[in-house]
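Q: Give me the 3D complex with 2-acetamido-2-deoxy-beta-D-glucopyranose.
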Amino acid sequence: MPSISTSLSWFSILGLLFSPQTCLALSKKERLACQNPTHDPLKGCPKHTLLVASGSSNATAKKNTFSSIQSAVLSLPHDNSTQYILILPGQYTEQVNVTRPGPLYLLGQTSDAESLGRNTVEVVWHNATGSATTGSYDNAYTSTLTIAPTFNSSATGSGPTGNPVPEDTPFGNFDFRAYNLNFTNDYLPYAAGPSLALSTSYANTGFYHCAFKSYQDTIYVGKLANSYMSKCEIAGQTDFLYGFGTLWIEDSDLLMRGCGGGITAWKGTNTTFENKYGVYIHDSNVVAANSSVAPSMVLKCALGRPWNALQRSIFANTYLDESIRPSGYIEWSTKEPRVNNFTFMAEYKTYGPGWNRTGRIEGNVTRILTETQWQPYSSPSKVFQFFKSGKTGNTAWLDYSA
Ligand SMILES: *[C@@H]1O[C@H](CO)[C@@H](O)[C@H](O)[C@H]1NC(C)=O
Ligand SMILES: *[C@@H]1O[C@H](CO)[C@@H](O)[C@H](O)[C@H]1NC(C)=O
Ligand SMILES: *[C@@H]1O[C@H](CO)[C@@H](O)[C@H](O)[C@H]1NC(C)=O
Ligand SMILES: *[C@@H]1O[C@H](CO)[C@@H](O)[C@H](O)[C@H]1NC(C)=O
Ligand SMILES: *[C@@H]1O[C@H](CO)[C@@H](O)[C@H](O)[C@H]1NC(C)=O
Ligand SMILES: *[C@@H]1O[C@H](CO)[C@@H](O)[C@H](O)[C@H]1NC(C)=O
Ligand SMILES: *[C@@H]1O[C@H](CO)[C@@H](O)[C@H](O)[C@H]1NC(C)=O
Ligand SMILES: *[C@@H]1O[C@H](CO)[C@@H](O)[C@H](O)[C@H]1NC(C)=O
Ligand SMILES: *[C@@H]1O[C@H](CO)[C@@H](O)[C@H](O)[C@H]1NC(C)=O
Ligand SMILES: *[C@@H]1O[C@H](CO)[C@@H](O)[C@H](O)[C@H]1NC(C)=O
Ligand SMILES: *[C@@H]1O[C@H](CO)[C@@H](O)[C@H](O)[C@H]1NC(C)=O
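A: Here is the predicted complex, encoded as structure tokens.
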């Protein structure tokens, strides 16, 4: 029987020869074997998998074991090679920054990889910006996890087009994946300025059975970022999905911890090619975080508001609880609505008590899509675009088996 690494390289070669679309770096079976706790934690993992263990674990004493995720990431070559990191149970208080271009898979150890409720790893950071107590610096400084080729490409900036990214900035990671990991930014237990759990720009990033928790601007999918989340949980209060790039959320729970701004706040960009930048929430649940906060939110939370007038946001085939206000989306503010013909704040077949057709029509900001209007956005391959060319079908980095 060939070792995993041998069969992997065969798989990669075959993938390159025939179809990069089907080139799965790690089969589900191999991934589960690696994540499953065993006496030797790396048993079942691809050769050269790095091990991260929190200080309290016995494994730290072992050679080649890292005590932080960032130190393991920094030990990797800045090249196109495929790399794996297995993280043992614990709470890791650190910021993790990934700049390398090659495939990188972060795996949380777990005996039940199908259930994010049993995730054993939490990566925590505490930072926010934009208030008198914090002072003001770019949102990029606050994030728990960042995947971007350079600091400047990850900065939010301000104005209609955000922070200017130098023309010669290369694409960053083209296949980053995280499985069974929780990312938290717990600066304060309420919206107190941007406080990112995830920041990703100029990169393709996939998250499976992961949790993201903060209160404001929890997830930033920045410029030229393609991000896919499946079977995840995202908890936030104010504008908790924001960005410039493309985010597809599938089969996940969006937990409202309060109502503030909207759930989505996107800043669209005019490009020479037709872009599909935007946030697409599909087959998911949008619900109050728990029964203690639910009563105060009834009919109050907005699906989103336009960070600029080119916002594109679609909730499709998704359940909405009674927290959602009758109009669905809202204007940015009364003084500055930021709504024009280009603003695309939409729903397709949402359902549940938060869906109110009369309210949507009266509110006059939400577009209710027909099947034909939904079609151009109805799958990840239609919205994930390649760097520079803008061609759609950039999906080789997605794992539909997770
Ligand atoms: C560390 O090893 C000792 C002795 O083998 C064992 O009793 C203990 O449970 C281990 N601790 C952890 C955190 O694995
Ligand atoms: C790394 O991969 C990217 C994307 O496939 C490619 O454009 C680049 O040339 C590769 N770099 C090296 C050093 O092989
Ligand atoms: C990870 O998040 C899930 C969902 O909120 C939770 O049930 C689980 O206990 C968390 N695990 C850790 C280690 O934080
Ligand atoms: C947040 O990070 C910034 C930039 O690194 C730092 O200046 C600031 O002190 C941090 N704030 C808190 C509350 O830790
Ligand atoms: C990650 O990037 C942020 C923003 O540049 C920086 O403040 C922080 O020190 C970096 N952290 C690590 C662990 O490299
Ligand atoms: C990053 O952006 C800042 C502010 O826009 C600029 O001053 C700096 O030169 C840029 N750094 C790089 C390496 O491009
Ligand atoms: C419910 O959610 C709110 C907002 O996140 C939080 O402050 C509170 O502790 C949660 N209550 C329970 C019982 O989990
Ligand atoms: C994008 O193009 C439209 C149509 O030309 C224009 O109305 C709008 O102001 C432009 N938006 C930005 C942010 O450049
Ligand atoms: C915006 O819509 C109105 C009403 O349908 C139409 O009259 C107008 O020409 C549109 N403007 C643009 C820039 O498409
Ligand atoms: C639906 O929206 C309309 C118009 O805003 C409102 O009068 C009605 O009470 C709403 N229905 C529910 C069940 O919230
Ligand atoms: C709906 O909003 C548009 C601008 O987005 C405006 O032109 C139109 O008059 C509004 N319709 C109603 C019925 O208020």
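A quick observation: The domain at 26-160+170-198 is CATH 2.160.20.10 (Pectate Lyase C-like).
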